[in-house]
Amino acid sequence: MNSPNSTLAPNATFVRPQFFYISGLSNLPDAKYYYIFLCFVYVVTILGNSFILFIIYMERSLHTPKYVAVCNLAIVDVCGSTAIIPKLIHTFLFDSQFIRYEACLANMYFVLFFSAMQSLTLVVLAYDRFVAICFPLRYHTIITSTSMVVILAVMWAIKAIMVITATLLFTRLSFCRSIVITSYFCDYGPAILLACNDNSPSFIMGILGTTLSFVAPVAVIALSYVCIIFALLKIATQEGRLKAMKTCTSHLILVAIFYLPICATYISTLSSTIHPNARIINTSLACVIPPMLNPIIYSLKTEEIMSTIKKLYKKSNKLNSYGTE
Q: Rounded to two decimals, what is the model's pTM?
């Protein structure tokens, strides 16, 4: 596979810049309002996901394998948003677009890692629904809290190794021309294209990472729902089918919110030349909006969460009424 920059001039010197420059949105007069909006998104994300974690911690009936994965998603959402938004606000609202080389590597690592973990956690939740509907009698044997923790731990370890490898390969790149990264963070893809030596290993690692973190999960989730649909068709009553399908509603909404903007950005990039500002807005929204909406969707669309919220609310009202007597 040939990458865009695969040659280096003879006797060229290896150049590791002290800084990179994050371009962000260019020639957009009201860009600061977009960054302020992202600040609001971050606050809602932290509060919403903290609330979900609190609800699951407080209610013993939610201490199940499915909610181990939901907790993992909430933690990953908080960490992913923290890796992106505070640094983004500091960079663009406070005119600090130069970022040190080492800080760039750290920013790149955490954004790539937590974005991938969001995707992989959705696969785990799809697996949970697949077993629950296709093998209901064996669900509690196959899906246990221990097995769920092991699956998630293996995913964290494998993805950490992959992103560390990608980051180490990045350190082999020489930047003798431009240090301007056309993105809103130290974006791996635009950054490796700036290299003036052989970037083939980094290019291949980027393709591999994208395939395993986004393309493969979409395929696995789609296949799991094909199996779920066939299983639903075997249920005798329409009421039974609707009841089983209702347990998948929140997950399907999360999948659509997470993957559709990413797919739209990739398709538009391949089919035509997308303006850098449009790409930055699309990809940044795809990264920060799902973590904000995930706890809202789980609160509104999941019966167990809603009943727990109502129960805790009634309990707090009783305590307040006793306190005022």
A: 0.87
